[in-house]
Structures are given as C-alpha cells and as structure tokens.
C-alpha cells in the first residue's frame, strides 16, 4: 500500500469555481478591532482567509468545504453556505 504525502493528496483536488462566493465575512470592523489573532487565517486548512491590513480577503475558490469556519470564528462573523449545485471542490481517490 502506498502512502501519499499531503502535497500529493492536494494534487488530487479539483475545483469547479462559481463566480459568486459561498463565504461572506459579515463585518470587517469586527475582524479589525476584536480579533487580533485573525483566527480564520490559522484554522482554515486551505488558506482561504488573508488579512490585508484593513480587510479580510476571502479566496473562496480554494475552499475545501470542511466547515471549520462555521464554528471557528469566535464572533460568528462568517456566513458559510455550500457552493451552488455543481460547484465547489471535487475529490478524486486516485
Ligand atoms: S476569525 Fe472571524 S472575527 Fe476573526 S478575523 Fe476571522 S472572520 Fe474576522
Ligand atoms: S470551510 Fe474550511 S476550507 Fe473552506 S473557508 Fe472554511 S475553514 Fe477554510
């Protein structure tokens, strides 16, 4: 049995990106003033969230749909939905 590295596993991921984000940061002021550690930039495994000085940028196209940001944001400041039907991540097993 072969063991794949994380990089090899990520290579198996494919994305069918929608033009509209399924992730929304509701209040950017909360990120700026109440969340000094910008926790979403830490717990998101796909590095979707990037703090750009005054605003959280959301690279929704690379979302793995793990759902962590539904519970990980201490201020419930992220609106999370599944991507529209037919869009989003595609997992391949080999
Ligand atoms: S974890 Fe929530 S409050 Fe903190 S920076 Fe991310 S979206 Fe903003
Ligand atoms: S669902 Fe998971 S991968 Fe997608 S943005 Fe949230 S934490 Fe990141």
From TrEMBL:
GO terms for molecular function: iron ion binding; iron-sulfur cluster binding. It comes from the Bacteria. Residues 54-83 form the 4Fe-4S ferredoxin-type domain. Pfam families: Fer4_ETF_QO. SUPFAM superfamilies: 4Fe-4S ferredoxins. The keyword Nucleus does not apply. Keywords: Electron transport, Iron, Iron-sulfur, Metal-binding, Nitrogen fixation, Transport. InterPro entries: 4Fe4S_Fe-S-bd (IPR017896), 4Fe4S_Fe_S_CS (IPR017900), ETF-QO/FixX_C (IPR007859), Fd_FixX (IPR012206). Could be a 3Fe-4S cluster-containing protein. To ferredoxins from P.putida and C.tartarivorum, ferredoxin I from A.vinelandii, ferredoxin II from D.desulfuricans. This is Ferredoxin-like protein. It comes from Neobacillus piezotolerans.
